[in-house]
Amino acid sequence: MIEIFLNKLENSEALYKELAAKLNDERVTDSDGLTGHLLSREEPEEYNIYISDENVPNETIDEITGIFADCEEKNPNIKTERFVDEFLNLIDSQARMTRMVKPRSLVHRDGDLHPTVHIWLIKRKDMGIYVLLQKRSPEKRINPDCYDVSAAGHVSQGGEFRSAAVRELHEELGLDIPKNKLELIGLRKNVYTDGVDIVDNEMSAVYLCRENIDIDKLVLDPEEVSEVCWAEIDEMLSVMKHGGFKNCISLEELAMIKKAVF
Fold first, then answer.
1. Torsion angle of C-alpha atoms 37, 42, 46, 48, degrees rounded to 10
2. How many CA atoms are closer than 13 Å to the CA of 66, on its beta-carbon side?
3. Could you give phi then psi for residue 170, rounded to 5 degrees?
4. Strand pairing of 78-85 and 45-52?
5. Predicted confidence (pLDDT) per residue in 23-47, tens digit
6. How many CB atoms lie within 10 A of CB 142?
7. Is the pTM of this model over 0.85?
8. What is the pLDDT of residue 220?
């Protein structure tokens, strides 16, 4: 199986360079080279083609996918399958975001370190610190029906942490919060595995948002969130200690919140 990444943000030269590397054929520098390579295959070969999900045109990708489809009809040794996926930048061993990109599904399959954001909506009341919890949709592949951080998500390729945090608050909760209202309280590395085919290896930027939020006015994304509620941190810790509710909440992040608030 040959996995090919076609990034809509790349130009023609970069895309054909990717093809030449993955096909191990330096002659694949244009449409003629790709056609010649594919039609010359005398042994069965399967290609998984991953296309980044940006809503932008890319004529070279249209050309490349058309060549694969045409050659598949002409050469019975060729089998192709196409996937549209979010592409993510990878993070290096020094916790720095790199220019290397990879489809999200393969990042989770291979356990590559990648950037995410966690945003905690908080309020103080009666000497307690309350955090907004979201209950993850039962349709989520990772940790369905679990109580979790207020909002969270991946940093798409070419993005940065704070902008991703603003986007996730809007997409998951319907909130429009300015960047300057998000307080970075640290980075946290986390690894989750389902023991089968997911290894979610994240470097998360953790933010606090202290804005006054009326949860009755939130617009929840049903694909992500089934409900929300406020929970006092110390009470929640006590319940978590005794396994009182299904959650995927980080004790380390709760400690980070308390340190930042007091």
1. 0
2. 8
3. -70, -45
4. parallel
5. 999 999 999 999 999 999 999 999 9
6. 14
7. yes
8. 95
Domains of the chain, earliest start first: 2-85 (3.30.370.10), 88-92+113-261 (3.90.79.10)
Both tokens of 55, joined, read 């809503």
**Can you give the pLDDT at residue 192?**
83
- Chain length of the chain: 262
Nearest-angstrom CA–CA distance, 221 and 218: 10
Residues of the chain short of pLDDT 70, as ranges, are 195
- Contact in structure between 91 and 205 (CB atoms under 8 Å): no
pLDDT tens digits, one per residue of 127-137: 789 999 999 99
The CA distance from 16 to 22, in Å, is 10
In sequence order, which residues have a C-beta less than 8 Å from that of residue 203 and are 6 or more positions away?
A: 91, 95, 113, 114, 115, 116, 187, 188, 189
Contact (Cβ atoms closer than 8 angstroms) between residue 90 and residue 107: yes
Pairing of strands 128-136, 114-125: antiparallel
DSSP result, the chain: -EEEEE-TTS-HHHHHHHHHHHHT-TT-SSHHHHHHHHHT--S-EEEEEEEE--SS--HHHHHHHHHHHHHHHH-TTEEEEEEEE-EEEEE-TTS-EEEEEEEHHHHHHHT--EEEEEEEEEEEETTEEEEEEEEEPTT-SSSTT-EE-SEEEE-BTT--HHHHHHHHHHHHH-----GGGEEEEEEEEEEEE-SSS-EEEEEEEEEEE-----GGG----TTTEEEEEEEEHHHHHHHHHTT-S-B---HHHHHHHHHHH-
